[in-house]
Amino acid sequence: MDFRGAHILSVKQFEKADVDRLFQVADSMEPYTNRVRISKALDGAILGNMFFEPSTRTRVSFGCAFNLLGGQVRETTDVKTSSISKGESLYDTARVISGYSDVIVMRHPKVGSVDEFAKASRVPVINGGDGPNEHPSQALLDLYTIKKELKANNRSIDGMRIAMVGDLKHGRTVHSLSQLLMLYDKINFTLITPKELRMPEKIVSELKAAGHDVLETEDMEAGLNDNDTVYLTRIQEERFTSKLEADIYRGRFRLNKAIYTRNCQPNTVIMHPLPRDSREDANELDNDLNQHPNLAIFRQTDNGVLVRMALFALILDVADKVDDSARDVGWYTEGRFS
Ligand code: NCD
Predict the structure, then answer these.
(1) pTM attached to this predicted model
(2) Which residues are in the Aspartate/ornithine carbamoyltransferase carbamoyl-P binding domain (predicted)?
(3) Whose CA is nearest to atom 7 of ligand 1?
(4) Could you say which DSSP state residue 271 is in?
């Protein structure tokens, strides 16, 4: 695909070569995220960061990524304080904000809303999550992380075994990640969910039709066996009709040190898109794994900035100019990454 000026709405728009190109650019951003160099490649550009649903890391990391390339960020952070609460349509909001920005990141609770917004926008739009549907930039950073983690153990994505655990019905990150993994060969998926929260049938049949192995199970301990990666998810409470309904499933599948040690391979990578629900009745990923070397959750969040910088650099066509205006960081950074 041609990234220049493109909307990023779904992982389905990528071919393997696009992902490779993106990851190559992401790798080249390390001196900037590591605060060794400062770039002004996007000096004067404005990101419209439009979040109509709760977000911490997606919103902030997109903002940081844009800042690290020298651009400025303008944002809204919820529906209540935006004109959407006065009845403004997505069309009008898109026309207005795209007049103020060079690129927009948009998150909204409704499936398809970001596509609708993009159609009216005068500048490229990145889907920061449209309800339970898709979250393409998260899938890209997850895949980038998996690739790096497996490479460290001399393994590759083709033929990989991944267990996805939790609310796979409403979790947009697993919808996007599993579809992105379809670009690779012979992935083995073990989908561990309560039967009411299974991965949408359409995605499961697409995975099978593309030649991947899919096992759906409610037996977590058996399902954890023999995987390269285990990807935990939170029960997506906001997608249920009530908290009480979400409570039925909360805490059903948990990973802690004892369960991990008993069932996983010694090098199984532990991932989660975050936020993890650390309340006592949920706790799908226990704090007793915090010091475990295979816990990749904070490497995922760090990688998110690299991948999002790469997206901006390619969409706004400065990937080859990032170093031109760069200079060394002037402030104290010692020990920052320990
Ligand atoms: C996820 C999301 O918003 O879909 N969070 C994120 O963007 N990293 C996952 C979640 O909220 O559970």
Answers:
(1) 0.97
(2) 7-147
(3) 58
(4) E
What is the best residue among 56, 57, 58 to mutate for testing ligand 1's pocket, by most ligand atoms within 8 Å of CB?
A: 58
Structural domain spans, the chain: 11-134+304-328, 136-298
Residues of the chain with pLDDT under 50: none
Residue 172 CA, closest ligand 1 atom number: 4
- Residue 337 is predicted with a pLDDT of 65
CATH annotation of 11-134+304-328: 3.40.50.1370
Backbone φ and ψ of 149, nearest 5°: -65, -40
Residue pLDDT, tens place only, 156-186: 999 999 999 999 999 999 999 999 999 999 9
Q: At what angle do helices 16-28 and 136-152 cross, to 10 degrees?
A: 70
Query: What's the pLDDT at 214?
Result: 98
| Predicted pLDDT of residue 216 | 98
- The token pair that represents 64 in the structure block: 């940081």
Q: How do residues 137-160 score in pLDDT, each as one tens digit?
A: 999 999 999 999 999 989 999 999
d(CA 50, CA 92): 14
Contact 39, 325 (CB under 8 A): yes
Which stretches of 52-167 are assigned E, i.e. beta strand?
72-76, 103-108, 125-130, 161-165
CA of 255 to the centre of ligand 1 (A): 18
Which residue has its alpha carbon closest to ligand 1 atom 1?
A: 273
188 burial type by CB count under 10 A (0-12 exposed, 13-18 middle, 19+ buried): middle
Residues touching ligand 1 (Cβ under 6 Å) are 57-58, 129, 135, 138, 172-173, 234, 236, 273-274
What class is the 136-298 domain?
alpha beta
Long-range contacts of 201-209 (CB under 8 A, 24+ apart): 203/175, 203/178, 203/179, 206/179, 206/182, 207/178, 207/182
Same fold, 11-134+304-328 and 136-298: yes
Nearest alpha-carbon partner for 20 in 3, 7, 8: 3
